[in-house]
Structure formats: structure tokens, C-alpha cells
Amino acid sequence: MSVDVIVGLQWGDEGKGRIVDFYAREYDVVARFGGGDNAGHSLVVKNERIALRLVPSGILQPKTELFIGGGCVVNPGTLVEELELLSKLGVDPRRLFLSDRAHVVLPAHLEADKRREAERAQPIGTTGRGIGPAYADRASRSGVTLREYCERYSTPEARRLAAHVVDGVAYIHERLGERKRVLAEGAQGTMLDVTYGTYPYVTSASTIAGAACTGLGVGPGMVGRVIGIAKAYCTRVGAGPFPSELQGGEGERLRERGHEFGTVTGRPRRCGWFDAVAARYAVHVNGIDAVVLTKLDVLSGFERVGIVTAYAPDGSVETEYLAGWAQDVRGTRRLADLPLAASRFVTTLQNLIGVPIELVSVGPERDDLAR
Questions:
Q1: Less CB within 10 Å around the terminal CB: N or C of the chain?
Q2: What domains can be seen in the chain, in order of their start residue?
Q3: Residue 13 annotated in active site
Q4: Residue 259 known to be catalytic
């Protein structure tokens, strides 16, 4: 069996959690392959919002195993809190497995992260969760793996996590050998990748589809479908280039209607129109087979909707405007039933990014999806 991959195509916050939840019903394992608890993802079930930072988004599928791969960095305190949350939700915590090769975010990493951000002449907008220093220690060969942490430390957190730690490479290959279906879940988005994002305003990990191989310990020949998640508009948290950003009324309206505030930090997100140039780039970098478009419902009621189609040499952008639609799309379950203007918008995006849009989110609930 192969490993299918889901990644964000923008600057994170694309709504990957609920889309992973949707696809997870067809998989035996949902595996997180990178990042740490700086990458929050949320699910809305019966108007209740469930926010997670580390545990993969397959928790609501009763038989799906959850795996945190070796490419991740784990804050033990956060993970223990999430295990307790899962227990309260009736989720069997024994479904969660942790790679022995994942690294631990220690208190010193959080302190270093905040100190370095405060010392920068131009802050990059780090969440202060210690992710960068933890990855830096891993690269400098001075980090602490989960296996070492559980063997060397006698804290309640270490004892609690020890029962979940496995040989990560053996685990994933055993599942594949049993012909189990594995879905690899990416964190954040392509434009925050440490190498291929808007450096230096990026995260400290690789967020693109290729990182699923290094983060889980599988070869590239084992990767099957790659699905990219993109909002019908763009957002970004913190500093850094954001070509389609809107200043003033339209941007504020997107933020208000889309509830665009960070899952982890609570910070207001910068908002802008869909950036087709960045999306095409992300499609190339990830080898995307199909796209899921989220939050189309947020655009309902706008008189016009914009799409950035080109960057000019002087730093400005070219924006194409399409007619908006007044209808509420939340009850739509078939793409063919979308209002004409909304359908035209989706078709235009599909033509611009060059791959099919196979699913569109039309509301916040798990089943608010049109195919």
C-alpha cells in the first residue's frame, strides 16, 4: 500500500484538520509527519470546536490509528493535555503511537524562542512554542528524542508518554506491510516551508509533501496521491511577504466572516484574496494531484471576489475580479448546485492552478462539503 499525503498550499490555517477528518474515514492510520504544537488545527462538531496542536486530525474516526512521526517535535505537556482531552471525548488514547525518533521540546527551548524573537531587529512572528530551538538542537546533534526522554526522565509526563512510544520506522512499515491505508497529515502550509517558503519568515520544519518521506521514514516510491488544501482566499499570521493582502474594509470583512484568529496564538490573521501565483508554485513544489477548496461560504455576500493572477516587477500584483454571489452556499452538497457565480469562481481557480478541485468546503461543520 502507498502513503497518501495532505498538505496546505498557502500560509497555513487552510482548514486541513476537518478535511483530514473527512478523508480519514477511508484510512487505517493518520500520521503527522512534521511540526510541533505551534500548528493548531480544529474540528467543529455540533457547534463545538475541538482544537488540537499535536494529535493528528483522525480522532473522530473510531477505528483509525494516530501516529506522530519522527519528523515532529513534541512538547510533552501539550501532548498529555491532549491525551486527557481525548479521554474526555471518549477517544481511546491507546490509538495514539509516537515515534521514538521524534524530538522533545524542553522548557529551555520555549525560553530561547521567546528571547530570540525579542532580540530580533525585525521579528518574524514565531509563536514562542520553542519549535525553532528544538529543531536547531536536533540539527546540531544535541537534542533529546522521545525514547531518550522517556528512558532518562522520571517525570509524570515522561511516564505517561512512554506507553505510546514505538519504533517509528518499524511501526509505519508494519502497517504498510499489512496493507493498511496511511494518510500523512502536514502541518502549516507550503509558503511557510523552511526551504521553499517565504524565507526567513517561515517555520523551522519542512511543510511540503516530500517531508512526509523523511518525517515518517518511507521512500518516495511509497507516496501515492498528494492532496493540497487551499482557502478560497488567503490568510497569514505574523510578518513576511503577503502579496494579496487587503488593507481596510474588505480585509476586515474577510477576517470577521472567516473568524480568522490563530488557533494557537489567538492573533488576528492578515487577510487577502486568493493568490493563484502562490498556489501554482505550491502545486509544483508538492506534486499536487487534486485540491480541496475551503471556506467558500465566507465569500458569500461579497459584491466581487478577487484572484491575484500575476506579480509585477515593481512588487505590485495583478488582480482579476469576478462577480460575487449573495446566496448562502452552506446547504450545497453537489458542486453542480453551487450558485452560478460561485461555480464560475471555483472553475476559474481550477484553471489557474492547473489541477482539479475535487471537494469544496461550504461551511464549518464536518459534513458541510460539496463534491
A1: C
A2: 3-370 (3.90.170.10)
A3: yes
A4: no
